[in-house]
Design a protein that fits this description.
single chain; about 550 residues; alpha/beta; 9-stranded mixed beta sheet; 25 strands
Length: about 550
């Protein structure tokens, strides 16, 4: 009698297989309508059609039936993960550049004040890391940006977690990306160019906004002799102010961009001219575009949601991208921008087994299941061949390291055990992290008052060197850490790019704080989210109903 399939036990299943619709995203756009993907030793060992012989070495391995669609794991190139505990901001006006909203009193109250408080609370950081990483994971994200710790000028490291971290991979086959550049290099054109050329990929904010000031941020990259401080490694994040000619300049240098449509639309009422970006370059060397959700205060919870925004935008703007092109932004293009395309980004034999399974199959449009429904459609997420999140039908629900949770009222399983993970994060379950973080946000004013009593407001506001050896979040957005996330080159003698400034005569941070609700893990657990989106003043009128149709098909 043949073996019966059973859910995968991530702790004791070095070889396993999934049966279903296999959307490979390989160069030929191969779709196996009824197939099996075979996993061994962190990699894809084989992809077969139903009825084909069992691959060598898999005798006795019975594929688990997914009744769904298997795709490559989502690769996110822009996410300030540390902020993803905060809820969506009801943006109060239309801004035209990053300098404007980043220096408003309401932003300081709702974002700066709570994040400075959490960032100083060393005991809360493991809970924050665990929670926001799980938030990405349940949305099918297998790669994202990391969360940096800072203890003194020039001294920083990234938390090691479950989701791949583009800045600190610890893997020779996955070159590490840059995302922060030393202040001295950010202000000198030649030093800036030399620095970004040292990496395969450098993810830096560029032209954040719609006005002349935002465009000057790009103009300042031009050097004498019609040369540019742009290298093939540069991946410009946002690029909202760029024109068709600017994208051609980027493409000519082999550079790329990262698109975050929801954040752009929420803040500015418009986003990058992705039609022009997609048309830049040549047939043999097209301009590359990746995708990022930015952060939850003015963006999507994860790339799962950002894909929906991108689809709604595309369909409402002359179908800039097909569904396949949209999914490639979050898979193959992301891998290419990072220089990881030989290792991840598509489902091909020999590549790492980073994959996501979503519920449902569509014969006419195989990618449709990824866009329709909320996060409950995500059935399984595997990274490096290890199942990390899924339904009890696909993942064992009991055993060492396994944790049960509910998403939108449906049972799910997490497997968060990893030898290389930070010990202080590894010690926390998701449930413990969620409870600790939710309690801290409800009592954030009291936490800050205690910080102010212990260190004094003057010490807390002083240079980071005062607190050398005291690790905290590297919040480069609003404190001096000797690093920046964007170039600050001069144009006509004036420094370009947004600069966050402390408010003159600002009251103690504790006076700005009040209880905050922890942003729920998913849209499926946040019944008011779609209504809140509908009240956002800057969003084009098609966005909220378009998202509603996708989240509640």
């Amino acid at each position: 009698m043949p073996n019966e399939p059973s859910p995968i036990d991530p702790a004791s299943s070095p070889k396993w297989a999934l049966a279903g619709r296999i959307v490979t995203m390989d160069p030929k756009s191969t779709v196996i309508m009824d197939g099996t993907i075979w996993i061994a030793d962190a990699a894809i060992a084989a992809i077969t059609k139903r009825g084909d012989p069992v691959p060598d070495g898999f005798a006795g391995v019975v594929p688990v039936e997914t009744d769904g669609t298997v795709l490559p794991g989502l690769i996110e190139l822009h996410n300030h993960l540390a902020y993803n505990a905060l809820p969506l901001w009801n943006v109060p006006q239309t801004y035209t550049n990053r300098d404007q909203w980043g220096n408003t009193s309401i932003y300081h109250q709702l974002v700066t004040a709570p994040m400075k408080t959490i960032g100083e609370a060393t005991e809360l950081l493991p809970a924050l890391v665990r929670y926001v990483e799980c938030k990405a994971l349940v949305g099918g994200v297998t790669t994202s940006q990391g969360i940096a710790l800072f203890s003194a000028p020039g001294v920083r490291r990234y938390y090691r977690g479950i989701v791949r971290n583009v800045e600190e991979t610890g893997d020779k086959q996955l070159p590490e990306a840059g995302s922060r550049i030393a202040d001295v290099d950010a202000n000198d054109p030649q030093a800036f160019l030399a620095e970004i050329e040292r990496k395969t990929c450098f993810l830096l904010h560029l032209s954040e906004g719609t006005d002349e000031a935002a465009h000057k941020h790009f103009e300042a990259l031009q050097l004498p002799g019609n040369k540019w401080a742009i290298a093939a490694s540069l991946a410009g994040i946002h690029c909202v102010a760029l024109t068709s000619a600017d994208f051609e300049v980027m493409a000519a240098q082999g550079a790329s961009m990262v698109w975050s449509p929801f954040s752009n639309l929420l803040l500015y009422g418009k986003t990058a001219n992705v039609a022009a970006a997609a048309a830049a370059g040549t047939a043999g060397s097209p301009f590359k575009i990746g995708l990022g959700s930015d952060w939850s205060p003015s963006g999507s919870r994860s790339l799962f949601g950002e894909l929906k925004v991108a689809r709604v935008y595309s369909q409402s703007n002359a179908n800039v991208f097909s569904d396949e092109q949209l999914v490639r932004l979050a898979t193959t293009a992301g891998a290419e921008i990072l220089g990881w395309d030989k290792t991840v980004g598509s489902l091909e034999v020999g590549k790492r087994a980073d994959l996501v399974v979503v519920a449902g199959q569509n014969d006419a449009a195989p990618l449709t299941p990824l866009f329709e429904g909320d996060e409950r459609t995500v059935q399984l997420v595997a990274i490096d061949g290890t199942p990390r999140y899924g339904t009890p039908a696909l993942m064992a629900a009991d055993g060492p390291g396994l944790e049960k949770l509910a998403v939108g009222g449906q049972p799910r399983v997490l497997y968060l055990t990893q030898a290389t993970e930070d010990p202080d994060v590894a010690a926390l379950s998701y449930a413990e992290a969620q409870a600790k973080l939710a309690d801290a946000l409800q009592n954030i004013k009291a936490i800050r008052l205690e910080q102010e009593r212990g260190h004094g407001p003057e010490a807390l506001a002083a240079a980071p060197a005062v607190h050398a050896g005291h690790p905290r979040l590297a919040l480069d957005e609003f404190e001096h850490t000797d690093f920046t996330q964007r170039p600050h080159l001069k144009l006509d003698g004036a420094v370009t790019g947004p600069v966050d400034r402390p408010q003159a005569g600002a009251a103690p941070i504790s006076s700005l704080l009040s209880p905050i609700q922890l942003d729920p893990l998913t849209v499926a657990d946040d019944p008011g989210w779609l209504a809140a989106v509908g009240h956002e003043m800057n969003l084009p009128e098609y966005v909220a109903p378009g998202l509603g149709a996708l989240y509640e098909p």
